[in-house]
Amino acid sequence: MSGWSVLAVAAGAAAGAPARFWIDRRCVARWGPRWPAGTLTVNLIGCAVLGLITGFLAGTGMAAGEPVFVVLSAGAGTGFCGALTTFGGFGAQILNLERRSTRPPRTRWAGIGYAVVSVTVGVGLAVLGYAAGTGIG
């Protein structure tokens, strides 16, 4: 790994972490803290952006060492998307939704529903982003 790759990851993460915090706070202010809309939003954005980056890089046929490849792959992909998205928060929120959904039967599957929606929509957005990215590249 080159020094430029490390700098690109650090710069991307420096933008992704505050973006995640800001988006989460906006979602909590809008919909309240009971539903993890902030985590869902950042994870779905991350899937779409990473799909777009991956598709673009695949469509251009760029070599891994080229500066634009490093900035996009390491900086935007690993750094920004890595700091923006959260797998640990996703897992904890699934458990919290399940723990809180013990009373009415209609909410019993809230955590599982959240996980299914997150994964299926996330993969769908990654595929759409990839397709859009290959069209650009």
Walkthrough of the structure:
- The chain contains five helices and no strands.
- With about 140 residues, the chain is mainly alpha-helical.
- It has one domain.
| Rg of Cα set | 17 Å
> Average pLDDT, to the nearest integer?
91
Helix content: over 70%
Share of β-strand residues: under 5%
How many separate helices?
5
Q: Give me the secondary-structure category.
A: mainly alpha
Main sheet makeup: none
Give the secondary structure arrangement, pairings included:
Layout (H helix, E strand, L loop, with lengths): L2 H29 L5 H24 L6 H18 L2 H14 L9 H27 L1
Helix pairs in contact: 1-2, 1-3, 2-3, 2-5, 4-5
Task: Please give a quick description of this structure.
It contains 5 helices and no strands. It has helices spanning 3-31, 37-60, 67-84, 87-100, 110-136.
Name the descriptors.
137 residues; mainly alpha; 5 helices; elongated
